[in-house]
Amino acid sequence: MIENIKAVHLMGAGGAGMSALAKLLGAAGLEVSGCDLQQPHYDLENILISPCIIGHSPEHIDKFKPQALILSSAVSHDNPEVLRAKESGIKIYSRAQVLSELFNNAQGIGIAGAHGKTTTTSMTGLIFLQAGLDPTIYVGANVPDIGSNAVSGHGQEKYFIAELDESDGTFELFHPSIAIITNADWDHVDHYKTRNEVIEAFTRFADGRKKFLIMCAEDEGTSHVYEKLINHENVLRYGWGKNFDWGAYDIVNNPGGGISCKVSHHGSELGRLELSVSGEHNILNSLAAMAAADLCGVDFKTSAEILKHFHGSERRMQVKGSRNNILVIDDYAHHPCEIKATLNAVRGIYPDKRIILIYQPHRFSRTAKFAPDIARALNLADEIFLLPVYSAGEKELSHSSSDEIIKLSEKAVTRINNNDDALNVIEPRLKSGDILLTMGAGDVYKIGEKFLGHHGHVE
Fold first, then answer.
1. ∠ at Cα 201 (153, 231), nearest 5°?
2. Is the pTM of this model over 0.70?
3. N or C: which end of the chain has fewer CB within 10 A?
4. CB 27 within 8 A of CB 88
5. Following CA atoms 101, 133, 202, 443 in sequence, which dihedral angle do they give, to the nearest 10 degrees?
6. pLDDT tens for residues 204-240?
7. How would CATH label the architecture of 7-97?
């Protein structure tokens, strides 16, 4: 697809997925230019041939004269810049088309799932990197332990570890040597109209693998995928206890953060795993990462020692700092299952502290479909503050506002009109020793940063 292409232009270059692709293409020797509607939140210095241009314009095509235009999923094909590229005879590709070509020509380890894929990809990438396998890594968030959201590797085995996006179905373009499915929950209701459509898509992805499949046995969706598989060869399952290929048991939540467990492989105990990150969901994520590493020759002892020092990805239960003895934590959770997992994990770390939650619903379609489940999950917090829905470009739907969640909540929920008003409403309610938890996939994190008095950018 991109063979013999020397210059590419990326629209939406500043986002998580596109900035990571830009880094990989730049490392491959291509001239990469880019633009975005907003200031890039990922460092593209020394990656693009000139600073990322803010805004889209046909003039970019005239200026850079790329041989290929690569679009983020947010860019419409009737955008004037895209139309200029078409008029000029320039090849136009989606991010997934280009990334899948790079991935499918390597030993791909592809991590998919409605939740947990960023952390699982980060864990897997860190193991392979520190075990000396020199992999290529592509993640949908900055990983402090890796130092980026992308790494261009040169290992002899050509391992390519990538987080795969199921939101628009393009993960089916990827054919991993090792496929990992963390779960197959129903999300992205704008694309998948029924739960069964999700199961069918993940089943096709699983059957499209080149060899191994690693899947969570504790998720109802993945259990349905397992039943529907055409090819049951080389399938490894992980979960709680000793009855799966990889299992975890004897779980201990560490005071102040972290969690540990014993790990079994085919029923035999391997030893104890100590994690710096918290939450039982991260034990499951680590089992998937260690299973992939084991298939590639990295033993449990090595993987466990590396994961012991894993500090998580940005916006995944990320401790941002403290002020007036109030700890600020930020998390990307926006689906009911993620909200519940994060709140339970924070409660496990700080059982005696009040959790003051600022939640920003993400997308009108998701809010309309899951409002009752979101309301139930939010009730795990001590106090709940709710922002308007972050549209992510969607048009507003009826019965899709934050007010619908408030109506369904068993607890009192305080509505906040916008991010700017948030601290005026919340600060008088905060007490020394509280946890201030910002949650959502939009820009809610800025409220925590404003409270702390700094304005650094995260995913």
1. 80
2. yes
3. N
4. no
5. -90
6. 999 999 999 999 999 999 999 999 999 889 999 999 9
7. 3-Layer(aba) Sandwich (3.40)
